[in-house]
Amino acid sequence: MRLSWSDPRLRNLVWQILIIGAVVLAGWYLAHNTNRNLEQRHIATGFGFLGQAASIPIGESLLSYTPSVSTYGRALLIGVLNTLKVAVAGVVLATVLGTLVGIARLSPNWLLSRIAAIYVETVRDIPVLLQLFFWYGLLQTLPPPRAAFHPLPGVFLSNRGVKLPTIAWHAAHFWALVAFLAGCVLVWLIGRAADRRQAATGRRPRTWPTTLAALLGLPILVWLGLGAPLHVDMPALHGFNFQGGISITPEYAALLTGLVVYTATYIAEIVRSGIQAVAAGQWEAAGALGLPRGLVLRRIVLPQALRVIVPPMTSQYLNLVKNSSLAIAIGYQDIVSIADTTLNQTGQSIEGIAIIMAVYLTFSLSISLFMNWYNAHIALVER
Amino acid sequence: MMIGKTAAAAALVGLALLAGGTAARADGSGSPTLDAVRARGQLVCGVSGDVAGFSLPDSKGVMQGIDADGCRAIAAAVLGDANKVKFTPVTTQNRFTALQSGEIDVLLAETTWTLGREAGLGIEFTGVNFYDGTGFLVKKAAGVNSAKQLDGATICVQPGTSTELAIADYFRAQKMKFTPIEIQDLQQIRAAFLSGRCDVYSTDSSALAAFRSTQGDKATDLVLLPELISKEPLGPSVRKGDDKWFDIVRWTGFAMLTAEEEGVDSKNIDQLVTSATNPDVRRLLGLDGDLGKQLGIDNKFAYNVIKQVGNSEEVWNRDIAPMSVPRGINQLWTKGGLMYAPPMR
Questions:
Q1: Are A44 and A348 in contact (CB under 8 A)?
Q2: Residue B185 lies in a domain
């Protein structure tokens, strides 16, 4: 390397050092300034508050929680799980709905394709926050608990949400679940055997009777063998509200519906573009072989369309997860809601915001990693 | 401790929450906030902006209420003009950050004075402008007449408020259970209560009374339960570390109480300026002594406050009395209440 400005290697090195220096300096300045201001204003810092008892009332929780006894750490964990609960269900349902609508938009049925088009073009143009208010407001027009709709025994529909009966948990149920999982493995093995048979003989053996037996018969046999215990926990109106059973709260229902209905419009367009990206010759060639339209879509077009669909789909999943932070507007206690209350009660704003950011970053990076892996998995193998 | 601090700061490199804080100035009064207010020619006051009786714009868009008048009083004391106020609406979530970061000069948003906030948030309360307590509002149809009957109830509450803490503690002490619905937006939370999503709406009892008074004919369907389950002294707060500004805000409040105690109001004040003989009144009005100068502001600051905004009784009658809330413990100490100003001398 010559010590001359005309040497491109030296030039690159100097520029890189300068830019890295500027970034580090900016970072140092922000950290230093924040620290100095915190000190000047006598604001306590640190994550010690996570172990203190939290007086945050939490309405909806997957873990046991007692306000004024459980810690802030546990409250925040419940927030994370609540976010996860809406994110996982939202991603699955939005994918199903979006795919169906995307296919419907390409349907030769005029009415179906028009309805799908109108749905996509209206819903995606309205801000998602307003849609959440709409769904939440709609659910509040349901009758109060005392006048709840009662379509089936044990099922109540009121402005407190949907109440469903549950089955009291018993060890036999656990073993039935194990049997079901074993059945799943069995079904997969049967499928592979059928594939081999088809490859060898060109004829696929009938698999549905064995599949059904493995999936349903096995768990039922185990359950019966262990004495068939069954105790149904029925919800009943008691005092202000229903007791017993499980409930889907209006807040969760409104948030999930709002996010799914909104995100599905984008997914529908991605699916439509993916299908249209598959050359028309593929349809025609499959048609010439006499395959029915549904089979062509499932076995020939969609697998090829997936390569176009998956990368933009990742962005929509990320959007859905991040939009779930709007939950605070309609009273669903996700991580943002609980972290907000935490930072308000403890005054640890920086730590609180850092926790929220870390949670979303973890969720988003996990989704990205999985989707990138899946994308590589389905990519066309070039020979 | 040190490690936690660095980690937290590093995590926030991109956020720079406090990067825009006020820097101490070399010249001026020695109070960065006072200098900033004077240079701006305007007081920036954080208010909630949606609670009747405390701060709510009227039909002409003018902010009305006891908090709004508190802001006007500080502007009158510092700048000589009660109208030089910019009202900045804050939420229960961002109010402390707004104050810490210097976005607002003073916070008057029905904020409860607690040890935790004063010790941990870098803010200080200058006094109390309203003694309140957490209450419960229910529908008459529910047939409830005591908070002890609320076991199993669904309660609407705003996240990030001291109400949350009070309810959690109260239900635990009473060995009762409840389901919270925590909605940030005030309009949404009220809608949820009216629609029957919640059995109970809980916040400071004054705010509940204010809410009920805005319901018109339906106000009689709503019942305020007799129990107040917590102490909620509400008052103005300022940033820590600016003692001169703290003194100004604190004594502006005391000046209004002293005026009520001495019988000085916005109507008789001009007459008193020429005729007053009571030494306390003469000092208050800046005719004798240098009370204002000691605070670093106009010696007639109390005159400006009382002339333009009124004394504490006038403010109460204008802002709170129309909601038919009895003054109760918010009376002057001479009338059996808790409002007590130290001597102004």
A1: yes
A2: yes
DSSP string, B192-208: HHHHTS-SEEEEEHHHH
Do A236 and A242 contact (CB within 8 A), yes or no?
A: yes
Residue pairs spanning A and B at CB distance below 8 A: 190
Is residue B6 situated within a structural domain? Answer: no
Residues of A in contact with B185 (CB under 8 A): 329
Contact A42 B165 (CB under 8 A): no
Give the total number of structural domains in chain B: 2
Query: Do residues B117 and B156 both lie within one domain?
Result: no
Same domain (yes/no): B215, B160 = yes
What is the model's pLDDT at position B20?
40
pLDDT per position as a tens digit, B31-61 = 999 999 999 999 999 999 988 889 999 999 9
Q: Answer for the pair B257, B341: CB distance below 8 angstroms, yes or no.
A: yes
Supply the pLDDT for residue B14.
40
Q: Which A residues 181-240 touch B at CB under 8 Å?
A: 238-240
Residue B74 located in a structural domain: yes
- Walk across the sheet containing B237-239 and list its strands: B85-89, B43-47, B106-107, B237-239, B123-125
Range of the domain at B44: 29-131+234-335
Report the residue from B10, B142, B155 with minimal CB separation from A31: B10
Identify whether residues B314 and B286 lie together within a single domain: yes
Contact between A301 and A282 under an 8 Å Cβ cutoff? The reply is yes
* Binary contact (B8, A59; C-beta < 8 A): no
Tell whether A55 is within 8 A of chain B (Cβ): yes
- Closest-approach residue (CA) in chain B for A352: B8
Task: Say if residue B44 is in the same domain as residue B112.
Answer: yes
User: Which positions ≥6 away from B111 have C-beta within 8 Å?
Assistant: B95, B117, B125, B234, B235, B237
In 3D space, the residue among A326, A325, A314, A328 whose CA is nearest the CA of residue A364 turns out to be A314
What is the token pair recorded at B308?
Answer: 């333009």
Same domain, B287 and B250: yes
Domain boundary among B204, B230, B256: B230
Q: Give the minimum alpha-carbon distance from B158 to chain A in angstroms, rounded to a whole number.
A: 9
Residue B18: pLDDT band (50, 70, 90) is very low
Q: Do A33 and B16 touch (CB under 8 A)?
A: yes
Per DSSP, A107 falls in state -
Show which of residues 276-315 on chain A sit within 8 Å of chain B, judged by CB atoms: none
pLDDT at A84 over 70: yes
Query: B148 and B238 share a domain?
Result: no
What number is the average pLDDT over the span A125-150?
89
Would you call A55 and B155 a contact, using CB atoms and an 8 Å cutoff? no
CATH code for position B211: 3.40.190.10
> Mean pLDDT throughout B170-198?
88
pLDDT bin (cut points 50, 70, 90) of residue A239 is confident
B79-130 per-position pLDDT tens digit:
999 999 999 999 877 888 899 889 999 999 999 898 888 988 889 999 999 9
Cβ atoms of A118 and A286 within 8 Å: the answer is: no
Q: Give the one of A32, A251, A350 whose C-beta lies nearest to B8's C-beta.
A: A350
Closest to B76 measured CA to CA, from B239, B259, B242: B259
Whether residue B195 is found in the same domain as residue B321: no
Residue A253, pLDDT score: 93
Q: Has residue B214 been placed in a domain?
A: yes
- Pick B168's closest partner by Cβ from A38, A67, A328: A67
Asked if residue B118 and residue B153 are part of one domain, the reply reads no
Which among A30, A55, A340 is the nearest to B159, CB-wise? A340
ipTM above 0.90, yes or no: no
Confidence check: pLDDT of A49 > 80 = yes
> Any idea which of A150-164, A227-241, B8-22, B66-80 has the lowest mean pLDDT?
B8-22
